[in-house]
Amino acid sequence: MKMPKNKKKYCPKCKKHTDHKVSEAKKKTPGSRHTQSRGSKKRVRARGLMNKGNQGRISRRPVGQRVMTGKKQTKKSDLRYSCGTCKRVTAQRTGFRVKKVEFQ
Q1: How are the residues of the chain apportioned to helix, strand and coil, as percentages rounded to the nearest 5?
Q2: Domain enclosing residue 4, as ranges
Q3: What's the domain count of the chain?
Q4: Which residues pair with 81 in a beta bridge?
Q5: Reported pTM
Q6: Could you report the average pLDDT of every consecutive run of 10 residues in the chain (104 residues)?
Q7: CATH number of the domain enclosing 20
Q8: Please, which residues have CB within 8 angstroms of residue 96's CB and are 6 or more apart in sequence?
């Protein structure tokens, strides 16, 4: 997907619309989170709550129903916008699925 290198966006620090430079960052995986952060798997295991109780949608699946397997073709993009005046970097709210982002 082709995108412009600069975009006019609202800067929360400047409190006005300014030109922002667009760049792509590497998308972080859930496993790269800090081990003691809230909701991390290590803390859940330490509390002893792993694999206990109802398993949600897995428990109520009818017998013989097919389960979708396989990997997704694309990852969600992770765009960062840096303000031209104050240099504050903000991330986009939600990514969109695209194989390749190209800036022009």
Answers
A1: 10, 30, 60
A2: 1-28+75-104
A3: 1
A4: 22, 90
A5: 0.64
A6: 93 95 84 73 70 62 67 88 95 88 92
A7: 3.10.450.80
A8: 76, 77
